[in-house]
Amino acid sequence: MRNLAIDYSKNGVPIDYKCARCGTQGCKLWREYNTLDTELLCAACAAADAGKEVGDLDASGHRLSDFGDRTDQYGFWVPAIPDEEGLGFWGYTSVPADGCAWWRQLPSLPVIATKI
To answer: φ and ψ at 23, to 5 degrees?
Structure first.
């Protein structure tokens, strides 16, 4: 069972909010559309799975779509926004405003620490 309970008013991510493929934490994640129990992927892994690039991903989690507009999706991968109880994820069109704001404030790509 994942630990995904969240308080949208606080910065940070649930302990199990991490990419299933590369282990990245602390950034926006995506999930497969219309599935109950799915793996979570970071932008790089979701883009690779969908055959897309991350080069034009902006701070709000949007990228240029194949149709010329901006989208927060990578193929069938949509923003992974956990519900407050940690029981699952909001449906793509049902996310409350505070959940959207929480997801948007996360870094779009992992922050890589460098040593000086």
So the answer is: 85, 5
In a domain, 28, yes or no: yes
pLDDT per residue as tens digits for the range 79-98: 999 999 888 899 999 999 99
| pTM across the whole model | 0.91
Three-state secondary-structure class, residue 31: strand
| Sequence-ordered strand ranges (E) for 1-116 | 30-32, 40-41, 63-64, 70-71, 77-79
Catalogue the long-range contacts made by 69-75 (C-beta closer than 8 Å, 24 or more residues apart): 73/30, 73/33, 74/30, 74/43, 74/46, 74/47, 74/49, 74/50, 75/46, 75/49, 75/50, 75/51
The predicted-structure confidence for 61-80, as pLDDT tens digits, reads as follows: 999 999 999 999 999 999 99
- Using the 8-state DSSP alphabet, how is residue 77 labeled? E
The answer to whether residue 115 sits within a structural domain is no
- Which amino acid, one-letter code, is at 73? Q
**Residue 90 domain flag:** yes
- 116 occurs within a structural domain: no
